[in-house]
Amino acid sequence: MAGIVIQLLGPPSITYPDGEGRQPRGRKSWGLLTHLLLHAVPTARSQLASLLFAGADDPLGALRWHLADLRRVLGPDAVLGGNPVILRLPSGYRLDTDLSAESLGEIRAELLDGLDFTDHPPFEAWLTMERHRLRHAVETLVYEGGLAALADADSATAIRLGARAVELDPLNADFHALLVRSLVAAGDRAAARTAAAHCGEIFEEQLGSGLPAEVQHALAAPDTSTAGLPSTPTAVASYLEAAQACLSAGATSTALNHLRVAEGLAARLGDRTLQAEALLGLAGALIHGAGGRGAEVSDLLHRVLSLTPDGPPAIRSAAYRELGFLAVQRGFPDSGAHWLARATAAAEGLPDERARALGVTGMLATDTADYPAAVVALEESVRLSAGRGRTRQEAFSRAMLGRVHLLTGHRGRAAVELDTVMALVAGEHWTAFTPFVEALRSEVYLTSGDDSTAEDMADHAIALAASFGDRCYLDAAAHAKAQVLLARGDARGANTWIRRGVQPNPWYRWFRGRNLDLASTAALATDPHRALEFARELGERSSRYGHRELAVRAYSARAALGDEAVLPTMTLLAQGIENPLLARDLAARHHL
Questions:
Q1: Cis status, amide bond into 84, omega within 30 of 0
Q2: 226 occurs within a structural domain
Q3: What is the mean pLDDT of the segment spanning 583-587?
Q4: Is residue 196 located within the same domain as residue 109?
């Protein structure tokens, strides 16, 4: 196996260093090999047979024949067998789906391009999901590579990768913003205006919406003039302190101005650490105060890292964490795991930063349905925060623990955590975080049969979230309100909030996915066509974003609507998800 290359993107092939030409015999062997290489959990023979060989006279016999074919191809050093089937390849082989920044430049083809499995719907459903996931992974690598190049002042690479990102997904505003920012950085404002105009034409034609705000911001950078102001460390520190005070008071716009001035003064002063601190504060204010999720904040964070290659670990850990937070909310799980691992490593000996990194790590594990890992990370974050009197971080991590317990059906534990958070938030006067906690607590009240309290809390969460303009918390509150109305039998009223919760361009893609699941479930009995549309969109997006449980629920809804061919795929996706509530819901539909 040493030196062989397995190519699954594009027309599949195996290249051997000695020039041998043996290949799997036919599309089913290729499909089987692809599944064994890419599916994270070893699969039972009966499940593999149902995916690819259900129409054979002897499905298990057909599976045995194709496994023997793969042993012939892979050679005696490979281990392939057992039940569940395990494939282990010796070191030295290369798989083209193991993506890296170095390998992404020419990746343009689909997984198993040219092979048709439409006559095997269960495998076709799994393959479609993997294609979505890999396409999204390539897009993420290209985009983040462009941001890193932009921060390092390598505008030529940033322009090339920005153009590639736009080619991959012309309807992603962040990709257009990266390209425009890169052209502006290169001093080619005419080309930047042309690229922005092209973006506006695409969005007008495809979405009827015109030029996205992210691209407008990329063209018109804010005024950061510091003429006449003293560029001293004391002046920078004063603006940073003023910005923090404004953020605490909810005056986000004023805080952003102070932070931009602080960054400009630090740049004039030539103090890279102070400049990085100001940029980090600016990025944090945009993310957590103004809903910034796009190329602007990612660029700021990459600039922080570029300014401090050997800088203070606390600054670097915080920048890594914020990049991880963005990746989690935007549905880039592999990228999120990468940044959060770096944040945790940089936070060694820094318990405050470690607690913050673990809080976001718990978010990611929850979104990707690794609930045991989420509990471990969040409980450790709570321990570190409570032990040092970091009340807001403790409240955040406890709220995320409450979410895990709500999602897994442990309503008593969820109630304890969320009631504790409510007390902590009240003591801190952290009103901006309250709607998120109330939305979750509303759902716990509803599961306990207290419909009246659930509705009051959902209504309060909606009002608060709307007053702060927080789309993330509004989506959470809309889900809670819709559930209350559905429990009461008010389908029309529930649909109003469901429509609010599934609007495009969310701050946090997992919450929109959860609302799509609720929308599909609510429409199953009354509007099957609409339910299927919601389920299909949820399946595509959750497979792209790594939201494993939501993907399972999407396939379950499709099966409930008569598409039983997706049941084997649903069963595969559900493997390894430790969630009693999911198991109960699937059993209620006779899908287990």
A1: yes
A2: no
A3: 95
A4: no
Task: Say which DSSP state 23 is in.
Answer: -
- Other C-beta atoms lying within 10 Å of the C-beta of residue 131: 18
Closest alpha carbon to 14 in 69, 82, 51: 69
Determine if residue 139 is left, alpha or beta; phi over 0 gives left, psi from -120 to 50 gives alpha, anything else beta: alpha
Cβ neighbours of residue 28 closer than 8 Å, sequence gap 6 or more:
52, 53, 62, 66
Could you list the residue range(s) of the whole structural domain that residue 169 is in?
123-219
- Residue 182, classed as helix, strand or coil, is helix
Q: φ and ψ at 81, to 5 degrees?
A: 165, -165
Do residues 358 and 379 make contact, with C-beta atoms less than 8 angstroms apart?
A: no
pLDDT of residue 249: 73
Place of tokens 């534990």: 413
CATH of the domain at 187: 1.25.40.10
Task: State the Cα–Cα distance between residues 55 and 299, nearest whole angstrom.
Answer: 52
**CA 275 – CA 260 distance, rounded (Å):** 10
**What is the predicted pLDDT for the residue at 40?**
79
Residue 589 lies in a domain: yes
- 348 part of a folded domain: no
Specify the residue for token string 């030409």.
Answer: 21
pLDDT band at 222 (very low <50, low <70, confident <90, very high): low
CB distance 186 to 159 below 8 Å = yes
**pLDDT tens by residue, 131-166:** 988 888 888 889 999 999 999 999 999 999 999 999
Residues 81 and 162 in one domain: no
| Residue 137 pLDDT | 87
Query: Are residues 566 and 532 part of one domain?
Result: yes
How far is the CA of 559 from the CAs of 65, 125, 451, 476, 533, in angstroms? 30, 12, 30, 27, 13
Task: Report the phi/psi class of residue 518: left, alpha or beta, with left for phi > 0 and alpha for psi in -120 to 50.
Answer: alpha
Place of tokens 């607690």: 355
**CA 436/CA 422 separation, integer angstroms:** 10
- Give yes or no: residues 111 and 131 share one domain: no
Q: Report the pLDDT value the prediction gives residue 103, as an integer from 0 to 100.
A: 55
The per-residue b/e assignment along 500-538, b for 16 or more CB within 10 angstroms, e otherwise, is bbbeeebbbbbbbbbbbbbbbbbbbeeeeeebbebbbbb
Query: What pTM did the predictor assign?
Result: 0.89
Residue 353 included in any domain? no
Q: What is the distance between the terminal CA atoms of the chain, rounded to a whole angstrom?
A: 39
Q: Are 112 and 157 within one domain?
A: no
DSSP 328-368: HHHT-HHHHHHHHHHHHHHTTT-HHHHHHHHHHHHHHHHHT
Q: Are residue 155 and residue 98 in the same domain, yes or no?
A: no
Task: Report the DSSP pairing between strands 94-95 and 86-88.
Answer: unpaired
Average pLDDT over residues 439-460: 97
Residue 5 DSSP code: E
Taking the mean position of all CA atoms in its chain, how far away is CA 288? Answer: 17
Which residue has 């469901």 as its token pair? 498
**Do residue 94 and residue 135 come from a single domain?**
no
How many other C-beta atoms lie within 10 A of the C-beta of residue 378?
27
